[in-house]
């Protein structure tokens, strides 16, 4: 019956609405929110790398344990004062990290301390891809980010009480990804436009690397741990921001970054950073490209 | 035959290049969405499944056999997910007919010719597996051999399903 063939060919039963415009970004967001790239070897390497350039802090359900002071007193007392020194010999780099803030999500572990010291040794294999200074500064970025995460947990303890949520996410191979960084493009009223946005050290797709964050009345702005205001942010400043997602357990709010201010998503803290967080990208990319090898470490935060 | 460009994008994606994967998503997202809709008859569900398909594909990319088209592999994942969703929905409601009806009833009737509407309704009455075959063959332009890959069934079975689907459609439309 050719009529039926003709009907079927010509009357494609299309959906009544097109795909959401942010479909691709939503997929990438969810992929980025998980720890592993598809390549198994890359997974292993990334895990090694992430022991040192840590993933954004998991929601610190016990973070309150380390935070007893409040307000500026907390910031002044706890803002990181990390000392990172490197020595190198024959492409072997020893990084000595002193007083680096610990991951708040590890605070339930026995022997956990708010700050830790460590020595880590790398062997640079491809010096054209990574320098000793890059490695040193990557450690500083890491420590500063831990400090900002702890500060965010201090200001917004309720937002960090996500034990059951996180358990579900961990089962799904996800971890809390809701912290990002980028470069301030402009500030207008309570809106901050940030370009070159990265999440979990991966850039957003090229067509979506600029987002406008709508600060809420309760949003905190800090500069090196000290209270600041949006007016203190200038074009070109590097910022790291955390935001809360109250989507149901196991269901990431895929639109949180696309549509800041949408119900269920709010920006908690915008921190002007001291260091260039894009070094994270460089460090991780160098690791994936075998530009260096991890020789040894006694970092108490490594592992897990 | 997929082109080398696609092979390169796949290789880059395996290295964690999200921009490369974005390009692949953009190539196939509409086709997958339409196909999922053909099975589920629900735009929101279809979009969720299409999205889930790309996430699954990303994490299983190392299992992809480049002998076959990437699109065929994606259709296979999407079809499995859509059919599973359909079965789950039917199970949960404990009455698949009611489930189908409820899904259909959420769709506004198109202001189109009566014949078109009749065909749409007739297709809705098909088993989801038959709808998948119709979608892949008529609307996505796959060959029977590719549909067999996408459905994970022998080519002979696909032809039988198509025959039965068309018989049922003729009956409904007569």
**Ends of chain A: how far apart?**
64 Å
Largest interface, C-beta within 8 A: A-B, 36 and 43 residues
Please outline the major beta sheet of chain B: none
Rounded mean pLDDT of chain B is 78
Q: N-to-C SSE series of chain B?
A: HHHHHHHHH
The chain-level mean pLDDT of chain A equals 68
Based on CA atoms alone, the radius of gyration of chain A comes out at 21 Å
Shape of chain B: globular
> How can the largest sheet of chain A be summarized?
8 strands, mixed
Task: Write structural notes for this entry.
The complex is a heterodimer of chains A (304) and B (174). Chain A contains seven helices and twelve strands. Chain A has helices spanning 2-10, 23-32, 40-50, 71-78, 132-155, 163-171, 278-288; strands spanning 83-89, 92-101, 115-124, 179-188, 191-199, 202-203, 211-214, 220-223, 226-228, 238-245, 265-272, 292-297. In chain A, the strands form two sheets. In chain A, strands 4, 5, 6, 7, 8, 9, 10 and 11 form an eight-stranded mixed beta sheet that branches. Chain A has a four-stranded antiparallel beta sheet with strand order 1-2-3-12, with helices on one face. Chain A is globular. Mean pLDDT of chain A is 68; it is low at 35-71, 162-177 and 248-263. Chain B contains nine helices and no strands. Chain B has helices at residues 4-14, 18-40, 43-59, 70-93, 96-105, 114-124, 128-139, 144-151, 155-173. Chain B is mainly alpha-helical. The chains are: A alpha+beta (304), B mainly alpha (174).
What labels describe this entry?
heterodimer; A: alpha+beta; eight-stranded mixed β-sheet; four-stranded antiparallel β-sheet; 7 helices; 12 strands; 27% helix; B: 174 residues; mainly alpha; 0% strand; globular
Quickly describe the structure.
In chain A, 27% of the residues lie in helices and 27% in strands. By secondary structure, chain A is of the alpha+beta class.
